[in-house]
Specification:
Elements: E1 2-5, E2 7-19, E3 23-42, E4 45-52, H1 65-77, E5 83-90, H2 100-115, H3 124-135, H4 139-146, E6 149-155, E7 158-164, E8 171-176, H5 183-187, H6 196-214, H7 220-223, H8 230-233, H9 238-249, E9 253-256, E10 263-266, E11 280-285, E12 292-298, E13 304-307
Parallel strand pairs: 4-5
Antiparallel strand pairs: 1-13, 2-3, 2-12, 3-5, 3-6, 6-7, 8-10, 8-11, 9-10
Helix pairs in contact: 1-2, 2-3, 2-4, 3-4
Bound molecules: adenosine-5'-triphosphate and magnesium ion.
Length: 310
């Protein structure tokens, strides 16, 4: 398969907040906080430059998540590029429950699809299924790819999702602590069984949450009440749990974002005075568009093609 040498794509991928209280592992929304990156097909090798979030920690080799995802897309489409240059500008904090790993995976898949000569063969549905496979769950990847509010599920082994139009006045404040918490650690705190009555209550609130997010934000406080995960994980993130309890007592619909430890609060009020020391605050709108190619160009004035290793 011939990859166009010098062809480059710029992609923009949003941060996402999953779970949103009772929508455990299925509901998520995208917010206007983005990683942007440019991927170029080069003659040979792998050259990675990262600025912003994660710059001090992320790998600069084949284990870089964007590269791993791009290579998976290339394998599905048939054949790897001869070389790659990657320029990442990250604003999504890592390990805070804001979907940075899903964003990196979606970015790699989108870039691979855009640059590969047969990229059109990879549909959005397949792209989501691959992203969910790499990520281990589909919720963040769905919102990152589609934007807005998403409901994701797995059917016959493949991830699927629908996108809902968020209420136009839906505003999200993210409160982000300085230290990270791995999704793996947070998942380990969940019980194997929950009381049936609590599961039933949770299902009702998840259904209400869909209505609150899309039609009636006044019901978000009731719609974000959860019985499946937040209380079990509280010991791993006491500051997060305490902040959420304080905000909810004031009528503000605050939840753990993803697996934590960030807090997502649905409010137009300023929460600056509530911010614990060392935390950062982002007042954001919901991202409507989802992951996007924002440029496709040739870096060499005389484009040529190379046959990559297959
Ligand atoms: N832009 C990126 N480039 C390369 N690697 C990344 C990038 N974003 C995330 N990663 C990898 O993913 C890890 C973070 O994944 P993790 O799932 O623990 O947190 P998260 O995705 O930020 O939060 P959550 O999954 O709870 O929403 C990082 O430590 C890094 O290895
Ligand atoms: Mg993640």
């Amino acid at each position: 398969m011939t990859w166009p040498l010098g062809r480059a794509v710029r992609v923009r991928v949003p941060a996402t907040s999953a779970n949103l209280g009772p929508g455990f592992d299925c509901l998520a929304l995208a917010v206007q906080l983005y990683d942007e990156l440019t991927v170029e097909v080069t003659r040979a090798g792998l050259d990675i430059d990262v600025v912003g979030e994660g710059a001090a920690e992320v790998a600069r080799d084949e284990s870089h998540l964007v590269v791993r995802a791009l290579r998976i897309a290339a394998d599905r489409l048939g054949g790897q590029p001869p070389g790659l240059r990657l320029r990442c500008s990250n604003t999504i904090p890592h390990g805070r429950g804001l979907g940075s790993s899903a964003a990196a995976i979606v970015a790699g898949l989108l870039a691979g699809r855009a640059l590969h000569p047969g990229g059109r063969d990879l549909s959005d549905a397949e792209l989501l299924a691959i992203a969910a496979e790499v990520e281990g769950h589909p919720d963040n990847a769905a919102a990152c790819l589609l934007g807005g509010v998403t409901i994701a599920w797995t059917e016959d082994g493949a991830a699927r999702a629908v996108r809902l139009e968020p209420h136009p006045r839906l505003a999200v404040t993210l409160l982000v602590p300085r230290s990270a918490l791995s999704t793996h650690t947070a998942r380990g705190l969940l019980p194997h069984h929950v009381p049936h009555a609590e599961a039933a209550r949770n299902a009702g609130r998840a259904a209400l949450l869909v209505h609150a997010l899309t039609a009636e934000p006044a019901l978000l406080l009731a719609g974000t009440q959860d019985w499946l995960h937040q209380s079990y994980r509280a010991p791993a993130m006491p500051e997060t749990a305490e902040l959420i309890a304080r905000l909810r007592a004031r009528g503000i619909a605050a939840v753990v974002s993803g697996a934590g430890p960030s807090v997502a609060a649905f409010t137009e009020l300023s929460l600056a005075a509530d911010l614990p020391p060392g935390w950062t605050l982002h007042r954001l709108s919901v991202d409507i568009a989802g992951a996007a190619e924002i440029g496709l160009f040739n870096t060499s004035s005389a484009p040529e093609t190379l046959r990559g290793p297959s």
